Amino acid sequence: MRFNLAIAGAVLPSLALGFPQMMGGTKEEILDMLKERAELEKREPDLVSGLLNTVGGLVKTVVSDVDGILGSVAGGLLNPNDKRPEPGYTFQAPGAGDSRGPCPGLNLLANYGYLPRNGYVNFGQVLDATARGFNMGTDLATVLATFAVLANGDLVTESFYLGSGPGSVGGLNRHSTVEADISPNREDYYLGCGDNHHLSSRLFQQNVAFAKAGSGKFDMQTMAQQYSASADFSKANNPFLYAFPFPQIVSVAAFSFYPAFFSNGTFGAGGVPNYESISSIIGAKLDRSTGQFSYVPERWPENWYRRSYPYGAVQALTDGFTQIYPSNIVVPLFAQLGTANFNATNILCDILQGFRSITPLIVAGTEKDAGTAISWALGKLDPVLGIGSLGCPSSVLSPDQPDILFPSASQTGGPINSPSVQASKAGNNVYNKVYFTAAPSKPACS
Ligand code: HEM
Fold it and tell me: Which residues form the Heme haloperoxidase family profile domain (predicted)?
């Protein structure tokens, strides 16, 4: 570390430099100190982070982990057309009435107006915005959006809320439909006492520590370690952990979404899943005085380029189930598990088959309602997953089958009927706060 005595002597003692608000003084004096600190940080970043690290304990570790992985921006071949946001799309933090939930990708797209800013979105808008903003493949977006409409939204308008639906009914917050336990940086539904949708400070601290100990990036290896540690924690502490197939697929794939979608530039072709990109896109803002991450509205960093070619369902499942999931097996309900036939195509066919044989779910109504819902979903999925595309076997719709895809769909606490949670934790995201400073080994209801 370069140590410039002239600067250090001329400015302030280290503590005041790190924590001006703790030194007392008038508002003007504190503002002056902050200004000086910002200038010094620009000129002498090593010096400032070194001084901050003298304060000790966890704060020191987290801050130094972050400083250790600050790095480069996109490299490789960049197409100017991939720069985001495009002209005409501007960041605007969500207001009190806007719906935001567990998906950082969709939250961000709504914050820029790629999706309606109020967070009430429809099928077509989601396919369009996810391709345009992040180059998500149409097949992957179709599978996700179909489940979201079916389990969390409204079939007639093909729409859903990004967070909680009106009266806390539906929306992506709804547990174990698309939202799942063992998420990259959200707590389990039961242990979070219903809060499965705010960024967890302690989980991101863990994620940063894995990045620091590895390549310094949020690559597949870092995310596999994050998955493995969180799977261990959930197995040990969450009696309602239930690896229900579809949400489990989403949650495993979501770990690979970090490098695959949030890298600046194309992951694997010069793009980097670095701290600057990841923390900004998932809305994690480090408070250097506490070492905690507050949850702020999701935002692209400056000079950010989306991946240059689509990342689709087969690629996402292949990455998820070959690079993330093997680090800690949580047994799902797939017939092919443990055989040579356990591959992305077969998992996608399982999804399609599952749809063909289920009795529903939120519609929880008549057989006719059920049939309508499933026919709708199959109509969306067949063109991207069906016989013509992946070669899945065909079968008939049988709404009488006891093989229910979303058991106890209408019960309190979500489809798997886990215990009730606090209603106050189930609403839309509230930003600019710190959530979960410690691991919740019991439901964090207070
Ligand atoms: C196409 C429609 C989409 C739907 C319906 C959807 C839905 C969801 C849901 C319900 C979750 C919570 C899963 C969990 O509990 O682990 C989630 C998480 C996530 N989604 Fe999305 N998503 C979509 C598109 C996207 C896109 C385009 C991206 C990236 C650009 C993305 C990135 C992520 C990530 C990284 C997480 C994990 C968040 C965390 O725990 O840190 N999603 N999504």
Answer: 87-318
> Of all atoms in ligand 1, which is nearest to the CA of residue 183?
16
| Ranges 40-49, 74-83, 90-99, 140-149, most confident | 90-99
Q: How many Å lie between the centroid of ligand 1 and the Cα of residue 360?
A: 23
Q: Which residues contact 223 (CB under 8 A, 6 or more apart)?
A: 184, 207, 255, 256, 258, 259, 324
The ranges assigned to domains in the chain are: 5-55, 80-434
pLDDT tens string 362-395: 444 455 566 677 677 777 876 776 555 655 554 4
Residue 319 has pLDDT above 60, yes or no: yes
Which residue in the block uniquely carries the two structure tokens 């806390």?
Answer: 168
Pairing label, strands 284-287, 159-161? unpaired
State the average pLDDT over residues 287-315: 94
Pocket perturbation via mutation, ligand 1, pick of 106, 130, 158 by most ligand atoms within 8 A of CB: 106
Q: What is the DSSP string of 224-262?
A: HHHHHHHHHHHHHH-TT----HHHHHHHHHHHHHHHHHH
CATH 3.40.50.2300 fits 80-434, yes or no: no
Supply the residue whose CA is at minimum distance from atom 29 of ligand 1.
105
**Any ligand 1 atom below 6 A from CB of 241:** no
Rounded distance from Cα 223 to ligand 1 centre (Å): 15
pLDDT per position as a tens digit, 242-253: 666 666 778 889
Q: Ligand 1 center to residue 180 CA distance, Å? A: 10
- Residue 258: predicted pLDDT: 97
Residue 173 in contact with ligand 1 by CB distance below 6 A: no
Q: Which residue has the higher pLDDT, 375 or 261?
A: 261
Q: Would you give the DSSP letter of residue 304?
A: E
What distance in Å separates the CA atoms of residue 305 and residue 308, rounded to the nearest whole number? 8
**What is the pLDDT at residue 74?**
63
Q: Are 201 and 436 in contact (CB under 8 A)?
A: yes
The verdict on the CB of residue 134 being under 6 Å from ligand 1 is yes
